[in-house]
Amino acid sequence: MAVQVAVCGPAECTERDWDRAHETGRLLAGRGAVLICGGHGGVMAAAAAGARSAGGTVVGVLPAADRSAAGPDLTVVLPTGLGQARNNVIVNAADAVIVVGGSWGTLSELALAMRAGRAPVVQLGGWLVHDEDGRPVAGIVHATDPADALRATGLWD
Amino acid sequence: MAVQVAVCGPAECTERDWDRAHETGRLLAGRGAVLICGGHGGVMAAAAAGARSAGGTVVGVLPAADRSAAGPDLTVVLPTGLGQARNNVIVNAADAVIVVGGSWGTLSELALAMRAGRAPVVQLGGWLVHDEDGRPVAGIVHATDPADALRATGLWD
Amino acid sequence: MAVQVAVCGPAECTERDWDRAHETGRLLAGRGAVLICGGHGGVMAAAAAGARSAGGTVVGVLPAADRSAAGPDLTVVLPTGLGQARNNVIVNAADAVIVVGGSWGTLSELALAMRAGRAPVVQLGGWLVHDEDGRPVAGIVHATDPADALRATGLWD
Amino acid sequence: MAVQVAVCGPAECTERDWDRAHETGRLLAGRGAVLICGGHGGVMAAAAAGARSAGGTVVGVLPAADRSAAGPDLTVVLPTGLGQARNNVIVNAADAVIVVGGSWGTLSELALAMRAGRAPVVQLGGWLVHDEDGRPVAGIVHATDPADALRATGLWD
């Protein structure tokens, strides 16, 4: 069974986030990892396009019950019909979660992944979580670029 | 149909969070609101106990498929069998979400509520979400005490 | 914690099914049971109306993510946002499942309840399940009327 | 995007059901279809093994939140953490559903597929659903062998 890595991020993203997600997808496919994503636009579409450009397998886990909103670069489409509860399915499927950029949906995936505690969570930019005293909450690794993000997952040590 | 308010917070909480959650539950029941919570300990149990002390209805939406982990102050128990995907059910059921204290599970509920955008989200303490430039992400109301939290929901204007 | 009983049946039902569901709801409320239902019309609405006529608590577990399709006799509304996956939430919440009438959605609830194997399943009319040799598959109790259905759950022995 | 076909059936199955499921998986892979299954043993494992023997892609949609119960022939593993609510995810993902053999879990998938009404449902043996008058409920196609089942989906007309 191949390694599975989720790339999570906003459906509307900056050009920098798009580039980072695309490169992350491309590198993951090069390592033989299956890419798990939310199947929509923005960071999800960029990671999917990057992975497909390197011949990778891409699974899109959609909130809707049908495939009408599926992006063009998905190998497998799972229209869950679960709405945003599908975010927990994405997280459960991942040996590591790489977060690119910030949005409320993205933050819910990051938080669900940390709550599950099964897979390393790596951020490339995006939102920051502080405790009541203003200190960063521990546990998330911040990477500087896609290659560093793959290293930080520890999956290819 | 009664107003439904979710109180979310960690299963292991500080004494201050317990007191705030208990008082929030008590005040909500006094207004005739149905309390929706995760049905476990800590903030969830405190809010449930507060609501029951005022004769309120308390719904516990559990991650497990059976009732064995249900707290003692629940009027109705929904063992969803969904794991942490049940957090989105809690959020969908709420006319307002009041967050007391911080944890990864709690943050996922806060983020899912903001993502849905249907209900006001009010925090009593807890974790803070900043964008990449270190500024608080807009949209969450921070209240000073339980009475202020109820006011901040806007449900009883 | 009160006993919780699910009444499942089609959203479009016959007059006989309506009467049976209404009487079942009324009797359940008389016993102090919380009624769990799908929250829509037909058998679900009849059971809810019956329970409310006797002062009972009625929980509607909706497929949609909001309350717009909720029936008028629900005490608590859980808009799950799960689509028909919500059928498994209904089943998990029930100490017994009473099925009135037949439809594909209803059959899925009956099958999920039998699959879980935690709660007795009682039918008042409705569809029949046969094995390949044409024999009824064992395990479901067939009742003759609502009072018999309550007896058959074994909850009040 | 490839055609996606679900093969559903019991985790403990007869030798005849195993052979039929294996041949169905093999034929589906030969057509380039992605096989969606529940990822466990019996019919699910047989269909997966058949598809892999022909070089196909196999997606296992598991009830558990982790991969420990995943079968050996899965290309992609989705540990949903949803319990039997995952049956609706399988159904939503399918352009056609082929049912081999009978069990309560299998029947729930058949019923959810008919409830959704989006994809043709084809049975190879298995349980039969009758209305109150003892007549088969319309809508399911009964096939005589795996090749006939593929034809009956209408996906390759």
Automatic annotation (TrEMBL), chains A, B, C, D:
It comes from the Bacteria. InterPro entries: CHP00725, LDcluster4, LOG_family_nucleotidases. SUPFAM superfamilies: MCP/YpsA-like. Pfam families: LDcluster4. NCBIfam families: TIGR00725 family protein. This is TIGR00725 family protein. It comes from Actinomadura nitritigenes.
